[in-house]
Write a structure and sequence with these properties.
Blueprint lengths: L3 E2 L10 H11 L11 H21 L6 E4 L2 H15 L4 E5 L4 H9 L6 E5 L9 H7 L4 E5 L13 H10 L3 E5 L11 H4 L3 E5 L10 E5 L25 H38 L3 E2 L10 E5 L5 H10 L2 E2 L1 E2 L12 H5 L4 H4 L3 E4 L6 H25 L1
Parallel strand pairs: 1-11, 3-4, 3-5, 5-6, 6-7
Antiparallel strand pairs: 2-8, 7-8, 9-10, 10-13, 12-13
Helix pairs in contact: 1-8, 2-8, 3-4, 8-12
Amino acid sequence: MAFVYFDHNATTPLDERVLAAMLPFLREQYGNASSRHDLGITARRAIDTAREQVAALVNVRPPQVVFTSGGTEANNLFIKGAAEILKPSQIAISGIEHPCVAKPAAALVRRGWAVRKLGVNRDGVVDVNDVDAALQTPTGIVSVMLANNETGVIQPVAEVAQRARVAKAWMHTDAVQALGKIAVDFEALNVHAMTLSAHKIYGPKGAGALIVDKRIELAPLIAGGGHEHGMRSGTENVPAIVGFGAAADLAASRLNELAPRLEKLRARVEQGLVQLGAVIFGNQSQRLPNTSYFAFRGIDGETLIIELDKLGFGVAAGAACSSANPEPSATLLAMGVAPEIARGAVRFSLGASNTGQQVDDFLNAVKNVVARLKNLTAMAV
């Protein structure tokens, strides 16, 4: 049986149409976009087109799109770039942020900033009342992801942004996981900045973007030739940027068809998991249509993942585990999930190529593996 991939929140396969758009710029159209000759002008025009495509996907003007090497760089660009401009005060981030937001935020402490973690409820949603409490303290930066990468729970970013603006704070959202799965509208969210990534929407790795409200100023992370309006110096990765643009067009064209189909498949897998005794995390909240986060009591998540991999199914650990120091998911702990249950967490994330038959085969494999692991546990006792 061919390997079945259910880890699309980690990365997505490069779509053939995206690859076709990239290939000329990996071969004959190899010019530097800063060059004044024909090859350079062709590269510059290709970047301009990609900027328009990405801008259209999130409802902004093309000059607001700053291309980066990925989501991690974009998050760092905003947090560190804003901190360089603003007077040190408080940065408020949700307790379920990706490390590429949490770690640069924590690093600001050395520069006189205070970090405030915003609480989430048991359903994985940021507590807006805690946002109000946090903003009683002078705050310069607020960052809340649009959708959690583990649970898929969609966050009330527009509500948080409205409060942040009243408090005169700059509002950022990491929309990496949401892009291509739900409609993402920069203007409707009312944020000052937004992070995107190509490889989550069937584009190439190594391309991302920070969408910036032109009324704010950020200090660049990388100084040099003044590329990307002075926000990100360095010769542009033309093939990857072109791929990002093509992937953005693709995402826009099939969102209305793909999301409902994946949601039906997700409901199918969750119905089967619950019948097998699984706990589903965040299922009382609005979630990304492709994402399910579950655990079986008494079953280690890493062990389940390894056994499923042997049977040809790719899923992900919910926890950042190692054999020496197993740590349960910080997201689940923030939601109040008991550590012994959180250590069993497994993330299942669907993509465009997945089918109902694959879901049924997966459920059958889970049933057999869980039964075997429970028997082994019972024998050990």
